[in-house]
Amino acid sequence: MYFVVESGSTKSDWVLIENKNSQSFYSTMGFNPYFHSSDLIEEELKKNIELAALSDRVEGIYFYGAGCSSSELNNIVKVGLSRVFKNAEIVVDHDLLACAYSTYSGRPVISCILGTGSNSCYFDGTNLSEEVPALGYILGDEGSGSFFGKQLLSSYLYKRLPAEMEKDFNQTYQYDKNDLIEFVYKRPNANVFIASFMPFIAKHKENQFVKNMVIDGFKKFMEIHVCCFKNYRDVEVNFVGSISDIFEAELREAAKEFNINIGRIIRRPVESLVEYHLNYVLHEKIC
């Protein structure tokens, strides 16, 4: 049996493949080696009774995660996994590769992530290429949950939210300025905290303030992360992640300005990622 894992900074989706017709789904917190150690990964996995019970029988793990962008960072995750799944061959790679795999349908494509963070790549079926780096939630992540969360929080603290949104924010969260500063600047996983306000933003998606904020953020993402590819008008541009699905109308409106042809929008890429592995990676291992 094999695990295919797609991990963002907030959560990880795990799919256990026993054969082509038998798949089981599990979930854990997201494991990002920028923020999480091998020890923490081991500890969290051992807390998961279902995964721990399977650990000795797993033959291989294909883990694709946010922050897994170098051999050193990948090894942090690999070590944590190997301490739990001691009999498994473990492959750790970038979540951007998972994005490319999950949106690939036999033709070259530009694949984009819009979740807690954001990123993009060009994938021709064999080679993956990036034109601009992902700079993370402080310097980059345009169009992502952390990007919009920062705008919401700053607008709230500057008293620039529409009155009805400010009232609802106060009733929903009951945070004051000191609370927010504490969570953002002094506690770990600030990117996840900031992105956690996306359900509130989605709740008010019909408010013109939110519509304008989201469309402008998507335009910024496309200008930086899509238009950087010379052939961006000639290939489909596909998206994975909850942000692209929840705000699909705004995403498509933003794309019109750049003549971008949006193809697939996949909220949970792990299912398409499993399909890719069954077709291209595990077809000789799984009966």
Structure description:
- The structure is a single chain.
- The protein is built from 14 helices and ten strands.
- It has 287 residues and is α/β, with parallel strands linked by helices.
- It has a domain of 108 residues: ATPase, nucleotide binding domain (Nucleotidyltransferase, domain 5, 2-Layer Sandwich).
- It has a five-stranded mixed beta sheet with strand order 3-2-1-4-5, with helices on both faces. Strands 8-7-6-9-10 form a five-stranded mixed beta sheet, with helices on both faces.
- Helix 4 packs across helix 14.
- The radius of gyration is 19 Å and the shape is globular.
- The mean pLDDT is 90.
- Overall shape: it is globular
CATH superfamily of one domain: ATPase, nucleotide binding domain
Mean pLDDT: 90
Q: Point out poorly predicted stretches.
A: none
Gyration radius, rounded = 19 Å
Q: How many helical elements?
A: 14
